[in-house]
Specification:
Layout lengths: L5 E5 L3 E6 L18 H9 L4 E2 L8 E7 L2 H12 L4 E9 L6 E4 L24 E12 L9 E10 L6 H8 L13 H11 L6 E9 L6 E5 L4 H9 L8
Parallel strand pairs: 4-9
Antiparallel strand pairs: 1-2, 2-4, 3-4, 5-8, 5-9, 6-7, 7-8, 9-10
Length: about 240
Amino acid sequence: MIVTISIIFQDQYLIAVNKPAGILVHRTKMNFGETESVVNSLRDQLGAQVFPVHRLDKPTSGTLVFALSSDIARIMQTEFVERRVHKKYLAIVRGYVKEDITIDYPLKEELDRIADKKARQDKPAQEAITKIKVLAQIELPFEVDKYPTSRYSLVLAMPVTGRKHQIRRHLRHINHPIIGDTTHGAAKHNKFFENEFKIKRLLLACTELSFIHPKTNMQMNIKATLPDDFKNLMIKLNWNDHVV
C-alpha cells in the first residue's frame, strides 16, 4: 500500500509533514519486516532524497521535519541536541492529572535485543525532563478497573530532553499512562477505548515544533492538525475547545 504523506511546509531547505500513526519514520535493522516508512513515501512523492533530523515513534502522529540536504540535516540535528527546538504534544491519559507538573526523572536507555546487541548494557540513566500542562478532564460512567467510574485527562506534554519513549515513560512514571500505549500503558483502559470508541492507537500526537530556520533565521512554528480519529474522539469527550 502506498502511503501519501501530508506536507505542512516546504522550502528549498526543509520539509515538514503530518506523520500518520502506525508508520515508521525510517526502516532500521530492528524493523526489517516493515515495508513502509515516511522517508520512502516522501522520497517517492518528491522525487528527491530527504534527510531525517529527529524522529517520532511509530504509533505517534504529528509534526515531523526533514532536511533536503545533508548539510541542513547536520545543522537541524544540532538544534535538537542543543534543545533549541521546542515541541508540543497532545495526549489522553488515564486518571485525573491533578496539576501542571515538570517531570524530572532520569531514564535508562531502552535497548533493542537485536539492534543494540553490542551496545553497552550498563549505561547510567540519562537526564529526562517533560513539562505537563492539564487541559481538560472527564469522568465516564464505566467500570473499567476497580472503580465504578473511569477518569481521563487531556494534557499538553512539552519534552525538554529527547529520550526514547520519554513522554510515554514519564506519564507512566506518574501513574497516568497514555491511552493506547501497548508498551507502557494500561491494557484494560486501552481495551475500553477500543470497544467503546472504536479507536485502537496511541493517543499521542506532536502538534507543534518551533525553531529558528537554519538559513533564513526566521522563527518557525510548524503545526499539525490532529488526525480524524483523534479529533473525533476529543469531540465525543466534549473537548472541542482543544481540537487543533
